[in-house]
Specification:
It contains 15 helices and no strands. With 373 residues, the protein is mainly α.
């Protein structure tokens, strides 16, 4: 019987199945934009008609500080620039700037048309591979960025709780008791937060163990887990995932500590810019002090949990619905929902339409490259 530290002989050739192109193109499909757009617009129209006093919103918009709208746009561009620079950096500049831009925009498009719980990992691997990287490098870089993004959440979630306790506010909003008990709803949201956080920590630790410490042990554990009768049907997928981890870990083996440190700080920059964009939008309508910015930033971490659990593509509908739940303290009831829609117009809908526009051109370009090679 093989040991957990070496489930496969080292002489054994490890191969992994590449993402199914048919499945990838089901996601990378311009027709996919209609579903999230219809869901999001449906919820947006409902909230706009039911929750927004249009004259009051237009008056507030006229009195708003437009410099903050520009600042929000700068945060958005800073976030995307960070993503582009990060993928190019971890590829050791093997990717060109043009390729990196295509990769990030199409990756965002894939994330926007798939539920948050599903993600666009297979699509990201496919895109990197089509841009000229080997299958092993494509897997390694996608896994590395996933681990880095989880690290941000793991480190900043406790900080959000500490900040909220220090300044006597809560990252978990109080919900109106019109339909549900306030205490139960608040504790339920807090429970969901801690459960999700715990699962993220466990997932990240297991992932880091496989990617950085013992990929063959990672594969062995997956195989043992899927030897159970209830999980036996996932065995082939587990073997393929284990092989992917071995190949990815081998690819990243030569990465120096300096690369990881740079990538970690760059990841923090990306997510901080992403969150500060909303701070800027709210500040456009309401004067904020430093502690208010901390409050808004901290609550986004809790709000992200709700959005991650959404079954809809790109959290369409869910994000618009929960926005005022978290930020009603800072925005008047008459136009809070309208700001939530504006927030989505900044960071979500553009990627749907930009992705749909550049996808056909990108496919033509990469197919030409393949024919030449």
């Amino acid at each position: 019987m093989s040991s957990p530290t070496n489930p496969n002989p080292k002489s054994e050739k490890v191969t992994a199945k590449a993402p199914d192109e048919k499945e990838v193109f089901k996601t990378l499909n311009t027709n996919k934009i209609y579903i999230p757009v219809l869901i999001g617009l449906g919820v947006a129209v409902y909230f706009f008609l039911e929750k927004v006093d249009i004259p009051i919103f237009l008056e507030a918009l006229g009195k708003s500080n437009w410099l903050w709208f520009v600042a929000a746009l700068i945060m958005l561009l800073a976030r995307d620039t960070g993503y582009i620079y990060r993928i190019r950096m971890i590829s050791d500049n093997e990717l060109t700037w043009k390729s990196s831009i295509y990769i990030i925009l199409l990756w965002e498009f894939a994330s926007a048309v798939t539920p948050s719980v599903v993600g666009g990992t297979a699509v990201a691997i496919f895109i990197l591979n089509r841009e000229g990287l080997s299958f092993g490098k494509s897997m390694a870089y996608v896994m590395m960025t996933a681990l880095l993004d989880n690290l941000f959440f793991i480190m900043f979630s406790p900080l959000a709780i500490i900040v909220s306790n220090s300044f006597d506010f809560t990252v978990f909003p109080m919900i109106s008791a019109d339909m549900f008990n306030e205490f139960v709803q608040k504790q339920g949201l807090k429970g969901a937060f801690y459960i999700s956080y715990g699962l993220t920590v466990l997932y990240a630790m297991f992932f880091a163990y496989g990617l950085l410490i013992n990929p063959r042990g990672f594969k062995w554990l997956l195989i043992k887990a899927t030897s159970l009768r209830l999980l036996r049907r996932f065995r082939k997928g587990a073997i393929n995932t284990g092989n992917e981890m071995i190949i990815a870990a081998k690819t990243l083996r030569g990465s120096g500590i300096s690369l990881w440190i740079k990538a970690i700080f760059l990841t923090f920059f990306i997510w901080i810019a992403r969150y500060l964009m909303l701070n800027c939008l709210i500040a456009a309508f309401t004067p904020l002090e430093a502690v208010d910015h901390l409050f808004i930033f901290a609550r986004q971490i809790a709000m992200w949990i709700v959005m991650l659990l959404s079954p809809t593509p790109g959290s369409s509908g869910t994000a618009e619905a929960v926005f005022c739940l978290f930020y009603a303290e800072y925005l008047r009831t008459e136009f809070c929902a309208a700001v939530g829609i504006l927030w989505r117009l900044y960071y979500y809908y553009p990627y749907l339409f930009v992705g749909a526009l550049i996808l056909p051109r990108w496919l033509i370009q990469v197919n030409k490259k393949r024919k030449k090679s």
